[in-house]
Amino acid sequence: MEGLLENLLHVPVQEKVFDPAEKLPLLFTGLYDIRAFVIGERLVYLIRPKEPLSLTKLKKHFAKLAALLDGDCILYDDGYTRYGISKLVEMGIPFIFGDQNIYLPNLGIQIHEKPRTKLPDVEQFSPFTQKLVLTALYQRWQHISGKEMAEYFGVSRMTVNRALLELEALDLPLVAMEGKTKYLKYAFSRGMLYDLCKDYLINPVKKSIRLRVKPENVSIKSGVSALAAYTLLGDDPYQTFAVTQEQYRQLALNHAELAEKDEVPACIVQIHRYLIENNNIVDPLSAILSLPKDALEDVRIEQAVEEIKEAVFGGRWPGKI
Q1: Is the whole model's pTM more than 0.90, yes or no?
Q2: CA distance linking residue 223 with residue 270, whole number of Å
Q3: Are 274 and 131 spatial neighbours (Cβ–Cβ below 8 Å)?
Q4: Contact 302, 150 (CB under 8 A)
């Protein structure tokens, strides 16, 4: 590293003895390897994540690290793809990735290897990408081709490829090219996969409708009703169900069937952007994501959410949690 910095900056570089535990909380010492260097007369910290982290989380952490340390903070790693570099530049995070991708704004240096593939401009998962990632988490897909995923979901290869491009655009280390075939590939735990992706997860609910009478052909539980089915949480006085947009159209509801705002409904029907079903229940993580924000403030629901996550990350789903 000293040689790379000296060749790049043309000034003397010397590593300095540094104990991160003296200046930083356990959170940061657990997540990052940190080395200190004196470059000319400047104190610089080179920081490398010990595990994959989302760009959103990286941005928050670097802001805190810059406040805690008395020198410039620079991200370095050999595991980052070239696709996230433009995002890092936008966020103002200095980095050194080998000698071809370097961004040191305080020193006026920028060397950027241009991406070979044009990637979509995305900030969150599309519904299908989220369905793919959550299914991969549940099914423990750690090495699966685009063709195999297309066959599993019954969609075109193009649909799967678009999802993989989204993952690349968000710089998530989940896509690998082997020969001419793209794979969804990772080697970490379910919990780590969720933490890596959680900043990009969307609420699966497009719209909620309060009804005076429960339709006969609606049965997939969602929201609090799904949490109650997975845990010992008591359900609301009225149940919540999930349908797709097409299923909602087939209900052909009229205005008289809709409950007024001050009226206790017979049930709530949520129109979902995608569905992963588990024995007539929305999958656990989508059920959590479908909850309204005020519901998450309830201590009982908060406890049920943690219970469900623990079961999912521990591999006790699919199946009864």
Answers
A1: no
A2: 9
A3: yes
A4: no
